[in-house]
Design brief:
Number of strands of chain A: 13
Number of domains of chain A: 3
Structural class of chain A: alpha/beta
CATH class of one domain in chain B: Alpha Beta
Largest interface: A-B, 211 and 206 residues
Largest sheet of chain A: 7 strands, mixed
Radius of gyration of chain B: 26 Å
Oligomer: heterodimer
Order of helices and strands of chain A: HHHHHEHEHEHEHEEEEEHHEEHEHEH
Strand content of chain B: 5-15%
Low-confidence stretches of chain A: none
Strand content of chain A: 5-15%
CATH class of the largest domain in chain A: Alpha Beta
Order of helices and strands of chain B: HHHHHHEHEHEHEHEEEEEHEEHEEHHHH
Chain lengths: ~450, ~525
């Protein structure tokens, strides 16, 4: 077996040194009825590298890769081009095969990029501090709700209808055995501002509210000014939590921090990580410095070594499970380190100028596509303001349209019925994202596809 | 005195042989590297983005006008920056990484290649299911291996890490109790447990109580039996346990737990010691997470991303999370909502844990590892892991102090008894290992052993690598006994940085970069 260095002669020598005559003697504490002496049945034996490549390659070939087809799907995961150097760097063994930096003297590489990552995330979101990342955007959002509970000592969170329904489901599942109550908005495709339920939020907001959670741009692509909402939250002593699932938008739209957010969480997948069928992804978590001791997850901080030189360590770990055990702020024990590295490299390559240009390009292309689709018979553009994602209302249920377009080789967004099965008023809606990866030919194919399907 | 590599062997010698300070601050291949904020420019970019077409903005007047202050690097600058940073890390690729409980085994590069196939890496989680049948098949394949290897009838694939898997298991347990109106309040776990165990139980609203241990490092069965009762919802137990020992009474523990109406959650962090040798399903457990980054060799990546699928017994399967892959009529279906899919599995689901379907990239790597090894190779891997740990235990037991009598499983646990009266602590000993070119073992864990040193060599170390490590450990133990205290207390002498001031980092947290001008303004 190519990954196991021992020859049988090594094993015999080592058993001799240990003073036993068989490996099974080392398993003597296992109840005899449970110890196996032959390989588990029902599974194949070892394969060569070539055999594995053939088998998995055939499985991969059954999927339609986003890069091989006109592609307009978003709703929480976005197809962006990732520079080749990003993947090259994250495959360096010193990054790929290192561990959590518990021994800082020999992990300064990881610790320095985490410090740089935290600084980039803080600037991008307009916040003061950020942690070293979380599992994904949805779990980061739930952690924010629990953090708001610790900060405000209140237990009612209001979640806007514009928040990704999977994120809401995660919050629902993970709070069900706690004393947290969630008030969740009902999504509507309101003309000009789909998913915007600001009036309802303000009607529910009171002195019992721990936080208000909104997404910007929201699930339907709508972009909103959150400044007044932030002021309203603060007037009631509640925190404003802003969710960002498309971080490229932060190169074009005012940062949540500048609009008064107290916690910003997000999905960092758009920058550096790739689609990966949903994971691994990169949860972003940023907050105000005054609340940092209530924050979840790992934090990297600057310090000095014994000779006074700058260095970095994991810090404020008295919040964490390995010290606090059942009193920890969260049970989390890892971050999404390698994805954070990919994000940080890609964002370093972009820089502010590149990010702004990329965001501007995404927006301009999305506007072009939205305007062309709005002119198709049977299609209505619901959004007023949007970034690179918008929602269309068709003259018929969208699920079949999206499926039929898929069969024609055009991946034309997400039918809202898939995310909100049976919710009235959404079944004809479809949300599309347009990024720098869409070519003119892709866009022509998309428009032609809608024209053909909706004409009959 | 110099060692074989020409390096000083004690700190006191360093001054005699030290090279002069350099102009640059670099020392040969040991290169200092500033922060991106100190070398980048906001107007420089390493990415060429096309000029946007002219359109009327539809951002609703919310344009971001203020500077973001994100530094940019050209590609050569970026490649050099990160390459220099990488060289300040220790990694499995560089040497033996005996970090107990973490399973730092070789990460096969085939796994990386497979995970990057566009058919796996470049597909969207919300694509129409007809366009991702191969991806769903891959998830189903890994699920099949996990169920077969554990002898368990069901598996939830979506948890994103070991601790997330624990949460999945405990949520299912609580949902199962609540479904029959049973409001149990207590979860028992031993003091030797990973910190995530009590943290997870508390997150699910449970009160955590200790399971007492015996002098030989295992659960005190009699004490456990006497504590089990109608208020106990579950026990959480790691097996092999965090002392590196197999719980001999595990079947009786499971029976007693079930007799009391509680569930048995097994922390599967150490499954790599028994994969292919013991099926946890034969031991009577109800739920167990499997760290794909341990047993199945997906890379640790400097702290994630991991993956923590959870296998379930029949009793808990109905409470498993959404979504999941369901095979029906020769087609794979992703079940994303309640009331769809299988009649038993997740039929009373506690809900959703992640935005999408779990760590697909890790599933592909794990599949590549499983197929490469096969059932026979996995069994051999477990046996070699146990052999290697026992070899280390046998060859160090005369100079270090084993915490418990052997045999051990995949990791060997020592206490700090052999350092008594030397003035050297476990921490000092660990830091001296850095100077010898090794990552330290896990230290001060488990908490039940004084000054614990937990050594896990893994199966991917050759005998020659183990022998060299053993000689280094013996030499260090001898140096400590000889009274060469400074060699330890000042260590590491040869790392990129010396010991770091962690107290200062926590008391005056600096968590983001601030330009010198910002710093002055703040003061």
């Amino acid at each position: 077996m190519r990954y196991l260095p021992h020859m049988d002669v090594d094993r015999r020598e080592m058993l001799g040194a240990i003073g036993v005559d068989s490996i099974d003697a080392l398993y003597r504490d296992v109840p005899a009825t449970a110890l196996r002496t032959s390989p588990v049945e029902g599974l194949p034996h070892h394969m060569t590298e070539l055999e594995v490549e053939r088998l998995l390659g055939a499985m991969a070939a059954k999927n339609r890769a986003a890069g091989a087809t006109p592609f307009f799907i978003g709703c929480g995961a976005y197809k962006h081009h990732v520079p080749a150097s990003v993947d090259h760097i994250i495959q360096r063994g010193e990054f790929l095969t290192s561990y959590t930096p518990y021994q800082p003297e020999i992990a300064q590489g990881t610790l320095q990029y985490l410090f740089e990552f935290q600084s980039q995330v803080a600037r991008l979101t307009g916040m003061e501090v950020a942690n070293a990342s979380m599992y994904d955007g949805s779990t980061a959002m739930t952690e924010a709700i629990f953090m708001a509970q610790r900060v405000t000592r209140r237990t009612r969170a209001i979640i806007s209808a514009g928040v990704h329904p999977h994120y809401v489901d995660v919050a629902r599942a993970l709070t069900q055995f706690s004393d947290e109550t969630l008030l969740i908005g009902t999504p509507e495709l309101t003309d000009g501002r789909p998913g915007d339920d600001l009036d309802w939020i303000l009607s529910e907001l009171d002195e019992r509210t721990s936080c208000v959670v909104v997404q910007n741009p929201n699930l339907f692509g709508h972009v909103a000014d959150l400044s007044d909402l932030a002021a309203a939250c603060h007037a009631k002593g509640a925190l404003l939590v802003v969710v960002v699932t498309e971080v490229v938008s932060l190169g074009a739209i005012r940062a949540p921090g500048d609009m008064g957010a107290d916690i910003v969480v997000g999905e960092g997948q758009s920058i550096g990580v790739g689609l990966n069928f949903g994971g691994p992804y990169l949860g972003l978590f940023a907050c105000r410095e005054k609340h940092v001791r209530q924050a979840p997850g790992r934090l990297c901080g600057e310090t000095v070594d014994a000779s006074g030189r700058r260095g970095f360590v994991l810090t404020l770990s008295t919040r964490e499970q390995h010290i606090r055990r059942e009193k920890a702020t969260s049970n989390i024990c890892t971050n999404s380190g390698l994805c954070a590295l990919a994000f940080s490299i890609h964002l370093s390559l972009l820089g502010e100028a590149g990010l702004r240009q990329l965001a501007s390009y995404n927006h301009a292309r999305a506007v072009q596509v939205a305007e062309r689709l709005a002119a198709v018979k049977g299609v209505r553009l619901v959004n007023g303001a949007f970034f690179n994602e918008f929602t269309l209302l068709l003259d018929r249920p969208s699920r079949a349209v999206v499926r039929d377009l898929g069969n024609k080789g055009v991946l034309a967004g997400v039918a809202l019925d898939r995310l909100y099965p049976g919710v009235a008023g959404l079944e004809n809606g479809v949300t599309l994202a347009v990024t720098e990866t869409a070519t003119d030919a892709d866009i022509d194919a998309l428009v032609r596809g809608f024209e053909e399907l909706l004409s009959c | 005195m110099l060692n074989r590599q020409g390096r000083p062997t004690a700190a006191g010698d360093a001054a005699d042989t030290a090279t002069p300070e350099t102009f640059t601050g670099h020392k040969g291949l040991d290169l200092n590297e500033p922060l991106i904020f100190e070398i980048g420019r906001t107007d420089r970019s390493g990415v060429d983005v096309p000029v946007p077409p002219r359109v009327t903005s539809r951002l609703g007047g919310l344009e971001r006008l203020a500077p973001i202050e994100l530094p940019g690097l050209s590609e050569p600058e970026a490649v050099r920056h990160y390459t220099r940073l990488s060289r300040k890390n220790y990694a499995i690729d560089m040497g033996l990484f005996p970090l107990g409980s973490c399973t730092m085994k070789h990460n096969p590069r085939l796994n990386e290649k497979m995970a990057r196939l566009p058919g796996f890496a470049d597909i969207h989680p919300l694509q129409p299911q007809d366009t991702v049948q191969g991806a769903l098949e891959l998830i189903d394949l890994v699920a099949h291996w996990l169920m077969t290897l554990t002898g368990m009838p069901a598996v939830a694939m979506s948890p994103k890490a070991g601790a997330h898997g624990e949460l999945c298991g405990l949520m299912a347990i609580r949902a199962a109790h609540e479904a029959r109106g049973d409001a149990r309040k207590v979860v028992l776990c031993p003091e030797s447990a990973h910190g995530t165990n009590p943290a997870t139980a508390a997150f699910c609203g449970y009160k955590v109580e200790d399971i007492p241990a015996t002098a030989d490092g295992r659960v005190d069965l009699a004490a456990l039996k006497s504590r089990l009762g109608p208020d106990v919802a579950a026990i959480m137990l790691t097996n092999p346990n965090t002392c590196g020992l197999f719980e001999r009474d595990i079947i009786e523990i499971a029976e007693a737990t079930h007799a009391a109406g509680a569930y048995f959650y097994c922390d599967g962090a150490n499954f790599n010691a028994i994969v292919g040798k013991v099926r946890p399903g034969d031991l009577g457990i109800d739920a167990m997470h499997i760290n794909l980054h341990k047993t199945f060799s997906t890379p640790h990546g400097g702290g994630g991303p991991g993956a923590g699928p959870v296998v379930f017994s029949e009793a808990l399967a109905p409470f498993a999370p959404l979504p999941y892959v369901h095979k029906a009529h020769g087609r794979f279906e992703l079940v994303e909502h309640r009331g769809e899919g299988d009649e038993h599995f997740a039929s009373q689901t506690f809900g959703r844990m992640v935005a999408f379907h779990g760590q697909m990239g890790m599933f592909v790597r794990a599949a590549s590892y499983m197929l490469s090894h096969g059932a026979d190779g996995l069994m051999q891997a477990a046996e070699d892991a146990v052999l290697n740990a026992n070899y280390i235990l046998a060859r160090l037991k005369d100079v270090m102090s084993p915490a418990f009598a052997g045999p051990c499983m995949h990791e060997a646990l020592f206490d700090d008894g052999f350092l008594k009266d030397t003035g050297v602590t476990t921490l000092d000993f660990a830091k001296a290992m850095i100077d010898e070119g090794y990552h330290p073992m896990t230290m001060y864990f488990p908490l039940v052993v004084h000054g614990a040193m937990l050594i896990e060599p893994t199966e991917t170390e050759s005998k020659a690598a183990l022998d060299e490590f053993i000689m280094a450990m013996r030499a260090l133990a001898a140096a400590a006994r000889r009274g060469e205290k400074e060699r330890f207390t000042g260590a590491p002498h040869f790392a990129p940085v010396q010991r770091l001031d962690e107290t200062r980092a926590a008391r005056q947290p600096v968590l983001t970069y601030k330009a010198p001008t910002q710093m002055q303004a703040a003061q």
